[in-house]
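I am still getting used to backbone structure tokens and would like to learn alongside you. Label the sequence line and the structure token line clearly, so we can match residues to local backbone shapes. Would you write everything just below, so we can both look at the same thing?
***
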Amino acid sequence: MSLNQLEMFELPNPCVGVCESGPRGYCRGCLRSRDERFQWYEKPEAERANILKLIAGRQKRRELFLRQQAQLEKDEQEGRTEPKQNQLDLL
């Protein structure tokens, strides 16, 4: 989005109503940091747009991690690997 486009459209607040911080400080619902959540409306539109891009990257990494965890669990159930500690709380 160019700056001209940012001025035309209000950027949505990415909150999904699941407000719980994980161990790394990111909200488990919207994947924003504490500062990104609490200061959302005070931040300039360009910074909000950047936060939305960061969230998209975080979502992709979380989805990849969850797919990898699911595959590990499937492999464990089928006896193909040694059991691993579940690390879902790292998100």
